[in-house]
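We store sequence, tokenised fold; for instance:
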Amino acid sequence: MPRDAAQPMEAVDISVRLPREMVREIDRLSREEGIDRDELVRSLLADALREYRIRRALEMYRRGEISLWKAAELAGITYREALEELKRRDIPLRYGREELEADLSWALR
């Protein structure tokens, strides 16, 4: 079930070992941005997780394992955003019967 955007996510503490140079970079960026280290790391992780979901879903699409509709759903993005990501990543659009049926189903709702 999708989480209500107004509800804050439950926070959980984790521990991770990072290379010293990475920590220096995080500290430098947090000073430059004027935000604390924790907030910056959460933001970076959120961005990285979004990118990972998109890349993983579009790779499955590229291999012909899933439709673009399914890739968008798995990635947590809209169909339109998935189309834009295909273009940005130079992945050819496959438009077959499954995509046509999904488009028609959506259009006739």
Summary: The two ends are 21 Å apart (CA to CA). The chain has one domain: 20-107. Residues 20-107 form one domain. Residues 3 and 9 are 8 Å apart (CA to CA).
